[in-house]
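Fold this sequence, please.
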Amino acid sequence: MKPKTAAQSGTFESSDVIFLIEPLPDNSGRKLEISSTVMQQFGVSFNAIVLEMLDQYEMTDIHLIAKDKGALEPTIKARLETAIKRSLNIQEGTIK
């Protein structure tokens, strides 16, 4: 799937992560910019989580920026899932 709109989720607070998603032109692939205060210790795991979730939603033609301040795995997954769903205009469980 290709993002329909730009979206974000999370904050740049301690123990949190912020994800920003923008659609790219068709056939652009994935452009990932990931930075973390704990990249040396957990960078491989963080990257694996991001790629797994992008694969799960079959995301293509996406520019994803992630700025992590030591978020735990459940927080990373929840923030990324929210950003992905917002970019796809999926608002499951949202009070309107």
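The chain has one domain: 7-87. The chain has a mean pLDDT of 94.
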